[in-house]
Amino acid sequence: MTIASGYLPILIMIVLGVILAGAFSCIGLFLGPKLRGEAKMTPFESGFLRDGMEGQRYDVKFYMTALVFLIFDVEVVFLYPWAVQVRELGWFGFVAASVFLGILVLGLAYDWKKGALEWE
After folding, report:
1. CATH code of the domain containing 79
2. Are 71 and 104 in contact (CB under 8 A)?
3. Would residue 100 count as lying in a domain?
4. I need a surface site. Which of 6, 8, 55, 86 has the fewest CB within 10 A?
5. How many domains are there within the chain?
6. What is the DSSP code (8-state) at residue 1?
């Protein structure tokens, strides 16, 4: 068995995925609804209509919510490999993860105190 024959199923899956994605996109373009109107063509961003809002600022709550989400998203990314290897890492890995989680809990407490989790 050669190396190339070992990668053949992967190559087939990639080609099949590209073909299916292209086919479904074309089917959607040709058979999908084509409703065009003034309401659909108006710019809409972050829950606001953009008419006359060029000079206005967003509320800081949007940014605080995004930062809190980012913190906990990164937490999950770093904790997953630790959870997979927790037995091999031993006490050192447990202490390192505890310090990491402690810093994140301090950040959460700070956000909570500042009102970043309150939505009005």
Report:
1. 1.20.58.1610
2. yes
3. yes
4. 55
5. 1
6. -
Does 87 fall in a domain? yes
Quick one: angle between helices 86-114 and 60-84, nearest 10?
Answer: 170
3-state secondary structure of 48: strand
Give the mean pLDDT of 47-66.
67
Whether 70 is covered by a domain: the verdict is: yes
Please report the pLDDT score of residue 95 as a whole number: 92
User: In terms of residue numbers, what domain contains 74?
Assistant: 57-120
Q: Which of 45, 113, 111 is nearest to 72 (CA)?
A: 111
The pLDDT of residue 2 is 67
Matching residue, tokens 């994140």: 104
The percent helix, strand, coil of the chain (3-state, each to 5) is 70, 5, 25
* Residue 101 placed within a domain: yes
44-45 and 48-49 beta bridge pairing: antiparallel
End-to-end CA distance of the chain: 64
CB within 8 A of 78, min separation 6: which ones?
Answer: 100
